[in-house]
């Protein structure tokens, strides 16, 4: 179930009552997905309402973003309620894992933010996926992966 929760000046997109994105973006874990140096090009796997994309554009107005999301319903809610269409990016509705396997485009930054409600695809942490992502980085590029807090001890 996808809903919008409004709190003062912020709207939060929730999937199954779990926060996915905020508009306008403010701090939180999102800030740790934004690099210090301009990546020039970025691939964002898991756009949601566009929080990370907005923060990238705020810091680097000329960055060229390709955004991938597999949930057209989330994207439509973000367009209708959170001004997603104002975000300057090439938005593609497809499965992130399939996109990574098919693309040959290189990026200065790849951000993997594939939470969906409470669900996190653990194959994000699998060596084949990580290696494929690394192979799509330009020289000196960065790979940022948003992961759950895993206590495996």
Break the fold down into its secondary structure elements and pairings.
Elements: E1 2-7, E2 10-15, E3 18-23, E4 41-45, H1 51-59, E5 64-69, H2 72-81, E6 90-93, H3 96-102, E7 107-112, H4 127-135, E8 137-145
Parallel strand pairs: 4-5, 4-7, 5-6, 7-8
Antiparallel strand pairs: 1-2, 2-3
Characterise the protein shown here:
- This protein has 153 residues and is α/β, with parallel strands linked by helices.
- It contains four helices and eight strands, in the order ββββαβαβαβαβ.
- The strands form two sheets. The protein has a five-stranded parallel β-sheet. A three-stranded antiparallel β-sheet has the order 1-2-3, with helices on one face.
- Helix 1 links the parallel strand 4 and strand 5.
- The protein is globular, with a radius of gyration of 15 Å.
- The mean pLDDT is 89.
């Amino acid at each position: 179930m996808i809903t919008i929760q409004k709190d003062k000046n912020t709207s939060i997109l929730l999937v199954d009552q779990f926060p996915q994105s905020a508009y306008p973006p403010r701090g939180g874990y999102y800030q740790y997905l934004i690099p210090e140096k301009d990546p020039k090009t970025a691939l964002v796997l898991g756009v949601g309402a566009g929080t990370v994309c907005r923060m990238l554009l705020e810091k680097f107005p000329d960055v060229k973003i390709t955004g991938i999301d597999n949930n057209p319903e989330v994207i439509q809610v973000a367009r209708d309620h959170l001004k997603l269409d104002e975000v300057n990016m090439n938005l593609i509705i497809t499965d992130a894992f399939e996109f990574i396997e098919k693309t040959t485009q290189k990026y200065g930054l790849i951000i993997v933010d594939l939470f969906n409600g409470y669900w996190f695809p653990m194959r994000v942490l699998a060596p084949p996926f990580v290696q494929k992502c690394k192979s799509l980085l330009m020289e000196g590029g960065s790979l940022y992966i948003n992961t759950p807090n895993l206590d495996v001890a």
